[in-house]
Write a structure and sequence with these properties.
globular; 16 strands; alpha+beta; 37% strand
Length: 300
Amino acid sequence: MLMLKKLGVSALLCMLVACSTVTVELPAINSGESRDRQPGSFVWHDLISDDPEGSVRFYSRLFGWQFSEFSPLNGRYWTISHRGRAIGGMVAQDSLPAQRDISQWVSLLSVADPDAARSVIVDAGGEVLREPVALGPRGTVAVYADPKGAIFATVTSPTGDPEAMTSEGDFLWHELWTSSVQDAVGFYAALSDRVSAEQVYFSDPVQTQPDYQLLVRSGVALAGVRSLPADDLPSLWMPFLRVTSEERLRSMLERVSQLGGEVLVPATARPAEGFLAVIAGPLRCTDCTPHLGRLDGGTP
C-alpha cells in the first residue's frame, strides 16, 4: 500500500508539471480577499481517481460539490468547489504514468518557505518524492513522505491560503495515523513556527484509548496525531469532512453504496464528542486501495 501511495503522488505531480521544462499553471487555491498564509494547516486536497465520472457523481450528490474540468497538457484535472469556493482538485488516474491503482486523497500542508521546509524534512529523516516546483498561481508544490512513510504535500501560495470553511461538506479536520506519535509531532511541529504539541486525555476509563496529540499554533488546533488503530495499517493522513449532526451522518451513509461508494466504518461515537464514519469513494477496480475519507457528525 505504501508503494502505491508513493507512486501516486509522484505521478500526480509529474502530470501537473509534465516532468519536463514546460511550464504548467494551475488555478490559485485562494480567491478570497485575505492574502494571509496559515503555515502548519492543511489548505488544499487533490483526489486521484480511477473513476472520475463516478467520483463526480458521488461527491456532487453526497456533498453538493461542483467540478470544473481543466486540462493541463495531456492530463485531465478538475477543480472542486463548494458553495462558490475552491476546496480541492481531482486528476484522472489514466492521465498518470501508473501501472497499478493509485486512487487516494493527497492533502497539501501550507509552508511559508518551500526550500526551508525541504531542508527541515530531509534533516529529520523524511523523503523527497517530488522536489519543490512552481505551478503559476497555484504556488510552489512539493511531495514528501515523513520518516514513518505517511505521504503529504506542501504548498506555498502567492495568493495566500483560503480561510477555514464551516459548512457541511467542507474539509473539517486532518488526522495522522502513525506508528510513533511522539516522533511525528516533533517532525511536523518543526515545519512551522510557533507550532507545538498537546497531549489529549480521554475521560472513558473502560475502553483502551489511543495515544493522541494535537498540533497547535496560537491556541488553535491544526491537526491530530494518533497511534495506529491496527498494526497492519501503514502510517497515513486521513482527511475529515464536516457533517452537521448524527442524524445527517446516518442519512448520508445510507446513500453511499447507492452512489457507488462503500461504508468501511459505520457511524461510531468519538472518544471526545460527536460521531464519525469512514467511507471509500467509487472505484472501477474491485481489488484496489480505496480513497478513504472520514465523515464527522456532531460537535467538532
